[in-house]
Amino acid sequence: MVIGVLSVLLAIVLPTIKTVRAATLRRQAAAEATALAQAAIRYKTEYGFWPGQLLVKNKAEGTMELRPEFDTSAGQSWISGIISRYRNTDFTVTAQSGSVAPVYIDDNLVYRALRRIGDLSGETFESNPLNPKGLAFLDLTNESDETSVRYPDPWGNEYILIMGLNPRSTFTHKITSQGVTWATVSVSNTIAFAFSRGPEAARGTNYIYSAGVTP
């Protein structure tokens, strides 16, 4: 009888625990996506460029240069957005705003710009010309190594960050995985936002967006 009662209780409690945990992870993802979007906006406010727009020209001298994709003086068109390109080839985000396509950059370039100065252990410090003030924008993973610095969501995947938008217009993006377009989402009234693909990752359609975004 005791075993039977325990089995019934477990059957009732376990789904509840799973539901609570899933909801907790989704709230965490929403908070982290919001933090990422706000970090990008703060970086733009501090340095005048979005993270990923600049490259280190001479690390020893602490000099930077604008990536060619953003150099309008060289005849490039004005951008309609910047999308951090997820490095896994089975997943892409495509978008078009009017006749101008957005610029795609590796998400690692974004996190390189947001790195603080030096090793978090405090033993070794080297300059990061992309963040010369050494500001702590985010709690990044592998922050001491610019080649592998990350900001994964609760399921281990990278967030998608989209910046440089015109808040008065609508930005429509398509989410494609394994050759299938899973969602077409339109966002407005923001200059930057981020989202997680959620627990389903490649097969998911219930994406988790930063605060203020109502797709």
Q: Could you characterize what this model shows?
A:
- The protein is built from 2 helices and 10 strands, in the order αβββββαβββββ.
- The chain is of the alpha+beta class.
- It has one domain (2-209).
- A 5-stranded mixed β-sheet has the order 5-3-6-9-10.
- The mean pLDDT is 79.
Keywords:
single chain; 215 residues; alpha+beta; 3-stranded antiparallel β-sheet; 2 helices; 10 strands
Element layout with pairings:
Layout: H1 2-47, E1 54-58, E2 63-66, E3 82-85, E4 91-95, E5 103-106, H2 107-114, E6 160-163, E7 171-177, E8 180-187, E9 192-196, E10 208-209
Parallel strand pairs: 3-5
Antiparallel strand pairs: 1-2, 3-6, 4-7, 6-9, 7-8, 9-10
Helix tally equals: 2
What is the structural class?
alpha+beta
In whole angstroms, the N-to-C terminal distance is 51 Å
Helix content percent band: 25-40%
Beta-strand fraction estimate: 15-25%
Order of helices and strands: HEEEEEHEEEEE
Estimated radius of gyration: 20 Å
Can I get a quick summary?
By secondary structure, this protein is of the alpha+beta class. Helices cover 25% and strands 22% of the residues.
